[in-house]
């Protein structure tokens, strides 16, 4: 394993108690060494860079002052928690982050006792911290409970719900609002503008600092009789922000904003603030990508930059055959722009994944018809449904794993009312290094049972392009289009649009005895297996079903009448998914054929490359070959 430079102080740090042995004056040097270590490791082992560089001082200060894990520390989300992982017993395996068999890129309870709560999806930390705080209160314990939430994640509905509940409780909880002015893309919405307004007023900050110094620079002054000074600072924030303090309105004490990249200031503030009981919000301002010039200047690109030079920050360009192909998300983005140019009723909607979904392409051309609604999947779906009710054609793009948060809205607001929303589920199937929290493996099974939905999985870029075209030709039911992360296999996918008949699959290749029914891009694995088997004089039939719902029953009747053994292939969970749908049809029609379901077993799949994970789940081409040979051997 490559040896990375840890620095003289970092070498001595294995657990938080080692940090506590340092003098405060040593902490800035430790922060520099942690930051350099993260940069050096991630330059060769890609991960989420920018957010974690901005929270190095915060991580050090929290572990220096608080007694974690006895004191609960919850990171929202793991993008911010790399320094935390380095300092809590995972320094020497940090280079395995997001790799197969390595440590997770997100906090994970089974990985470390210092990961108090698993967080892979945003806006959950305040709910978790509040639940832990109230549980401790019931048990008579007096621990600290800290939620670190970014200004982007604070726009999520769960954060508001938790704050509303917290305001009515007497829980001992500290919410640290890490405000770096950006989430993955630029933050959107009125709350983001509010945070900017209370941090940007130079007059307010000057007067605040004067009062702070007059009070001795100590938050103990907030406990003066009748809270005069505390209310004075609250009043200042409200006056210069031009509005009432949002958190104070919810009966939550608000402190800040302070410099979140000043570790000495953070330590002093935490030492004071932890003596104040009840609900508190500390607003810190950090620099995303701090310590790497390119990451500071290009925070969106360097959120997860891939391979880069640790000294210059310059990203590496991998010139290989894969570069000739296009990402599915870009096929979506480019196609939607084309369609929007010919159909003025098309609108694009996404919950905070503007760049990740490539909907930024439409934003550039049609900003008035493109909506980034913030981290609010439920709102995105219902907002789309309402626009559909007014005659628009909404293409609502949500990552498959994030769609789970809007399940009720899909049922209640879209499917029940038969509103023709086009739900584009990006990152469907196994997504690779982000791991269990992000795999889009549940969409087929969970959505198949919802009435009125049409569910389509394109086998390639051309089919994705054509189903997007078909969607705006007057469909009367909601349409789900799910497609994978990464690139396809076709260079020239931009052809004249062709309409796809709803509910019809296609025969790719006729065969003998054994047929493979494939859904989506898993057809590539089937074709690779077919090529290997043909060299052994084994001819199998391959069918691209395209639609999970409605199934092409004419094609299925043909397959069941011709083949004794049928393999179903999907990159979703086996229980309730595509294979289950085929089995149900066979039972209904009285077919006695042997059906072999190849999909993901009833378990959560960890991180790794997609190739590694497909092999683990036995849905890769080699596993298909083995399954076919096993069937033949039994015959």
Structure write-up:
- By secondary structure, the chain is of the alpha/beta class.
- The chain has three domains: 10-303, Rossmann fold, CATH 3.40.50.970; 324-482, Rossmann fold (3-Layer(aba) Sandwich); 507-634, Rossmann fold (3-Layer(aba) Sandwich), CATH 3.40.50.
- The protein is globular and about 75 Å long.
- The two termini are 47 Å apart.
Helix-strand layout with pairing:
Layout: H1 16-20, H2 27-44, H3 50-54, H4 56-65, E1 72-76, H5 82-90, H6 125-139, E2 145-150, H7 157-166, E3 173-179, H8 190-200, H9 202-214, H10 228-241, H11 246-249, E4 253-259, H12 263-273, E5 279-285, H13 293-297, H14 328-342, E6 346-350, H15 360-365, E7 370-372, H16 377-389, E8 393-399, H17 400-403, H18 407-415, E9 422-426, H19 443-448, E10 454-456, H20 461-471, E11 479-482, E12 506-509, E13 514-518, H21 523-534, E14 541-544, E15 547-549, H22 553-562, E16 565-573, H23 578-589, E17 594-600, H24 610-616, H25 621-634
Parallel strand pairs: 1-2, 2-3, 3-5, 4-5, 6-7, 6-8, 8-9, 9-11, 10-11, 13-14, 13-16, 16-17
Antiparallel strand pairs: 10-15, 12-14
Helix pairs in contact: 2-4, 4-5, 4-12, 6-7, 9-10, 14-20, 16-18, 21-25
């Amino acid at each position: 394993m490559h040896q990375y430079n840890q620095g003289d102080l970092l070498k001595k740090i294995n657990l938080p108690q080692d940090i506590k042995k340092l003098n405060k004056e040593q902490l800035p040097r430790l922060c520099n060494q942690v930051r350099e270590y993260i940069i050096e490791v991630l330059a060769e082992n890609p991960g989420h860079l920018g957010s974690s560089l901005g929270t190095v001082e915060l991580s050090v200060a929290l572990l220096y002052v608080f007694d974690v894990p006895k004191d609960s520390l919850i990171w929202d989300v793991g993008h911010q928690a790399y320094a935390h992982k380095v300092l809590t017993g995972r320094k020497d395996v940090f280079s395995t982050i997001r790799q197969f068999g390595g440590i997770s890129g997100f906090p994970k309870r089974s990985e470390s006792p210092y990961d108090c709560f698993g967080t892979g999806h945003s806006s959950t930390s305040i709910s978790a911290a509040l639940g832990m705080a109230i549980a401790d209160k019931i048990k008579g314990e007096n621990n600290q409970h800290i939620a670190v939430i970014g200004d982007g994640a604070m726009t999520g509905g769960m954060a508001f719900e938790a704050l509303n509940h917290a305001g009515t409780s007497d829980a001992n909880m500290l919410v640290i609002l890490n405000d770096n002015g950006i989430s993955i893309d630029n933050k959107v919405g009125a709350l983001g503008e509010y945070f900017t307004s209370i941090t940007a007023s130079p007059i307010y900050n000057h007067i605040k600092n004067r009062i702070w110094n007059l009070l001795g620079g100590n938050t103990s002054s907030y406990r003066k009789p009748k809270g005069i000074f505390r209310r004075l600072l609250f009043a200042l924030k409200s006056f210069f922000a031009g509005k009432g303090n949002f958190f104070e309105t919810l009966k939550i004490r608000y402190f800040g904003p302070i410099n979140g990249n000043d570790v000495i200031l953070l330590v002093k503030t935490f030492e004071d603030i932890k003596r104040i009981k009840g609900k508190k919000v500390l607003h810190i301002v950090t620099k995303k990508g701090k310590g790497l010039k390119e990451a500071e200047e290009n925070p969106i690109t360097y959120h997860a930059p891939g391979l880069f030079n640790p000294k210059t920050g310059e990203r590496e360009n991998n010139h290989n055959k894969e570069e000739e192909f296009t990402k599915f998300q870009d096929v979506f983005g480019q196609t939607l722009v084309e369609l929007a140019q010919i159909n003025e009723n098309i609108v694009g909607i996404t919950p905070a994944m503007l760049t990740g979904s490539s909907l930024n392409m439409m934003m550039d051309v049609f900003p008035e018809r493109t909506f980034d609604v913030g981290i609010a999947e439920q709102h995105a779906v219902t907002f789309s449904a309402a626009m559909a009710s007014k005659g628009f054609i909404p293409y609502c793009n949500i990552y498959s794993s994030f769609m789970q948060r809007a399940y009720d809205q899909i049922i209640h607001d879209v499917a029940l009312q038969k509103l023709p929303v086009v739900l584009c589920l990006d990152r469907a199937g196994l997504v690779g290094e982000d791991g269990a929290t992000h795999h889009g493996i549940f969409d087929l099974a969970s959505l198949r049972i919802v009435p009125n939905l049409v569910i389509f999985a394109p086998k390639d870029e051309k089919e994705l392009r054509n189903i997007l075209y078909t969607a705006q030709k007057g469909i009367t039911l909601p349409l789900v289009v799910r497609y994978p992360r990464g690139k396809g296999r076709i260079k020239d996918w931009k052809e004249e649009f062709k309409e796809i008949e709803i509910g019809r699959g296609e025969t790719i290749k006729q065969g003998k005895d054994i047929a493979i029914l494939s859904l989506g891009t898993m057809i590539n694995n089937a074709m690779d297996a077919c090529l290997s088997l043909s060299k052994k004089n084994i001819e199998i039939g391959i069918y691209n079903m395209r639609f999970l719902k409605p199934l092409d029953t004419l094609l299925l009747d043909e397959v069941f009448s011709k083949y004794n053994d049928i393999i179903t292939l999907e990159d979703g969970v086996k229980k309730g998914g595509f294979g289950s749908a085929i089995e149900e049809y066979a039972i209904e029609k009285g077919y006695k054929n042997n059906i072999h379901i190849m999909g993901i077993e009833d378990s959560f799949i960890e991180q790794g490359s997609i190739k590694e994970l497909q092999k683990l789940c036995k849905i890769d081409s080699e596993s298909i070959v083995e399954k076919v040979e096993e069937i033949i051997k039994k015959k």
